[in-house]
Design brief:
Two copies of one chain form a homodimer. By secondary structure, chain A is an alpha/beta fold. Chain A folds into two domains: 296 residues, Zn peptidases (Aminopeptidase); 144 residues, Glucose Oxidase, domain 1. Chain A contains 15 helices and 16 strands. In chain A, the strands form two sheets. In chain A, strands 1-10-12-11-13-16-14-15 form an eight-stranded mixed beta sheet. In chain A, helix 10 packs across helix 15. The longest helix of chain A has 20 residues. The two termini of chain A are 14 Å apart. Chains A and B meet through helix 4 and helix 9 of A and helix 4 and helix 9 of B.
């Protein structure tokens, strides 16, 4: 096996005829790839299924009956599709309950402001917390003004730049505010455009630092309170939250397969996360990714394309506020990890796909980049360096090559973790393109004679 | 006067040298127009004042203390500006109170849906109304399916085309639904793009037709319920509304002047409406229009430009749900109506101005079109046929020439009557352009030797 692999790599890496040779081996799959693409684009049933899922079960938050009902339905449908080894694998998930919540502006004028408590937050006392607001633009500013923060509610008014940059105030804002003596913390919703649209998401506390209530306000209200403070108006609010964390409850990862015809023990995983936040429909985050991955495998089966290796759809539970599904999958399949050839996740919205972001060895990158050429016809062939996904992260950290579906993400964070994450934002044709992109990549990696190289062998 | 006017008109209308002559008379004002424009664009105080108004007093719904506090502040500021005859003219306004309200989806899954009761709606019974939903796409479809509507809640799922076309379902939807035997009615929010953003607005009942509760749902939920119905899923909801109409209460139209130096009895009115809906900040609907008109006159005074005729700023109250301010202004000034030379309204958002829409005689149109040339420098010189505004409508129906400020309206209905009608959507430079546009037009009409012709004299 090692020798064959090395030969394959040398073949791939031999310059100067490299690109022509890459093209050479991958061209053998162009016919089947075209069949897959044509079939995916000539379909409306999968998008209808996505619509049925989000409309019928609504948001699928960890710990809710909605989520378990949705999982039951998916399992039944997958079995009806003739997928193999369809099962729910047990996972204990956290159960954070939002309860009633409100934010009332008391001065300079009185008005109810919309807000969303952040996942993991504690409640306020039953009478709420009434306090002045101190607006800061960064953790640095908070530290510089710590003397003013004591007894106040700190509002982080940090304009959206990138998700990674601004989400820090959502995840750890309560910790830093509590360190400064604040009695609660608010964060400007993490998104670039708002129609008075609060964004929820997870947050955390730190051992030894008081746990204070933590919630998101809209971009509009964050900007308003900034203006009030800048002109010297005292801002007074009352925050009320019933949020609480209950005991863990059982949920499941959804698993279904198309068992490989020659090397069933070697596995290409593809999927998304079946849970969502407790707002909106979780249509793009991440029902769309789930149904696209599921449909990719269903489609291959319907086309009679059973590849050499096993294709395994995994719809992880509890990505949003715990990642317990991803960790449970890793733990339940530890003995198989070596045989996980590739893990593919779709969790950036099933907008128009552009290709994949790949995390793995250079040798493997050359292979998947070559496969990407089969997707150029639908402008989805760009495989770039760096990528993965939250759910496949635990696998990737054990050496499994991983890739995330790349899409036109220009509006993703308009909707992310809001009530506006709904089916109508998705386009059936773009969804079908995502199905085609996932199916072609997964099929060729599962079908090609050589296993996708995990790392360049020493001296290779 | 008649003879002078006719001579002026003949001068204006004499072909073929018409355009050159138009240019000729208006060019005399180019210097002063440029001064006005330069001063308007070199200012930030007016936008700051707009921000202060909406942040400090919040939404200014008829019948609320917020509105009256805002009026008190405006009156005091106008007096401090040195405007003349500053006063609040009494108006009795309706007082509709939203109260608590909710819409709960009960099947196919259970979830709170966001909604906004529509102005004038009655309440549900204290226990709410629990019923199945019938989705229709038009009044015609409702009539065709009237047999199915009895005992149900009718939802009008009508996609936004133009405001005029789709607002009908908001204004009269309850009447038609009640005629079909429905127990309540819902309307898809009247807007082209939504981030789960309900739009409120006014509605009405009809004598002899049962008054049923009437509310708006988001575009997202309207589309969701359409899909549910299309796939045969029964939709069950519980609607709860405390809405009620109380006794009329006093409010005021804000009036302030720059008294004309030669013909003080001849009046050019410009303004907007100081009331708003009870959501958001009413920043573009219509605090922006109010402050822009006010600033236009303040600026002229500051520049020492007291025109021949009187400039009168009027900030009407209760445009949104009664138009009582507009009617009261007309009634209080009936004896002056003949001397109202022109009425200008800004109520389409103070986005980048393009010019005006004009309603009046052809002769007057030629005059204001010529004045528009002074605004070409800031791309705000297009004066088109047809236009006015709700508040100046009663004046126009008595023969007063009227015009509405035209602006880039591409996003106005994203925000209209929602919580997203907030200051951050406005741009200070665009606001200043609107001030400049209003100021130049109002000044020249008030200053030019001949009065703006009201109608072409017989045979003229």
């Amino acid at each position: 096996m090692r020798i064959v692999l090395t030969a394959f790599l040398l073949f791939l890496l031999s310059a100067p005829a490299l690109r022509a040779q890459e093209a050479g081996w991958v061209e053998a799959y162009r016919g089947v790839a075209d069949r897959i693409i044509d079939a995916a684009l000539d379909d409306s049933a999968a998008f209808d299924r996505l619509a049925y899922l989000v409309d019928t079960f609504g948001p699928r938050f960890s710990g809710t009956q909605n989520l378990e009902d949705a999982i039951d339905w998916v399992l039944a449908e997958m079995a009806a599709d003739g997928l193999e080894n369809v099962r729910g694998e047990p996972v204990m998930v956290p159960r954070w309950v939002r309860g009633r919540e409100s934010l009332t502006l008391l001065a300079p004028h009185e008005r109810e402001l919309q807000m969303l408590g952040l996942g993991g937050s504690v409640a306020t006392p039953p009478e709420g917390i009434e306090a002045e607001v101190l607006v800061v633009g960064s953790f640095d500013e908070l530290r510089a003004r710590a003397a003013e923060a004591a007894g106040k509610i700190v509002l982080y008014n940090v304009p959206f730049t990138t998700y990674g940059e601004t989400v820090r105030y959502r995840t750890t804002g309560a910790v830093e505010a509590a360190r400064a003596g604040a009695v609660a913390s608010l964060v400007r919703s993490v998104g670039p455009f708002s129609l008075y649209t609060p964004h929820t998401g997870n947050s955390r506390y730190e051992e030894g630092v008081p746990e204070i209530p933590h919630a998101a306000v809209t971009v509009e209200d964050a900007m308003m309170m900034q203006r009030m403070q800048d002109r010297g108006q005292a801002i007074r609010v009352r925050l009320y939250m019933e949020a609480r964390t209950l005991d863990d409850v059982p949920s499941r990862n959804v698993v279904a397969e198309l068992v490989g015809r020659e090397r069933p023990e070697e596995i290409v995983v593809l999927g998304g996360h079946i849970d969502s936040w407790d707002v909106g429909q979780g249509a793009m985050d991440d029902a769309g990714g789930c149904v696209a991955a599921w449909e990719a495998v269903r489609l291959l089966k319907a086309l009679g394309l059973r590849p050499r290796r096993t294709l395994r759809v995994v719809l992880w539970t509890n990505e949003e506020n715990g990642l317990r599904g991803a960790l449970a999958y890793r733990d339940a399949h530890l003995e198989e990890i070596e045989n996980h050839v590739l893990a593919i996740e779709s969790d950036a919205g099933v907008f128009k796909p552009t290709g994949f972001g790949f995390g793995g060895s250079d040798a493997a990158y050359e292979v998947v980049r070559a496969i990407g050429r089969l997707l150029e016809r639908i402008e989805a062939g760009a495989v770039t360096r760096g990528g993965g996904g939250a759910d496949i992260g635990p696998l990737m950290r054990l050496g499994v090559p991983g890739m995330g579906l790349s899409v036109d993400g220009s509006k993703y964070f308009w909707y992310h973790h809001t009530n506006a994450d709904t089916l109508d934002k998705l386009d059936p044709h773009e969804f079908n393109l995502a199905v085609a992109t996932l199916a072609v990549m997964a099929y060729v990696v599962a079908e090609m004679p050589e296993r996708l190289p995990r790392e360049v062998p020493p001296g290779g």
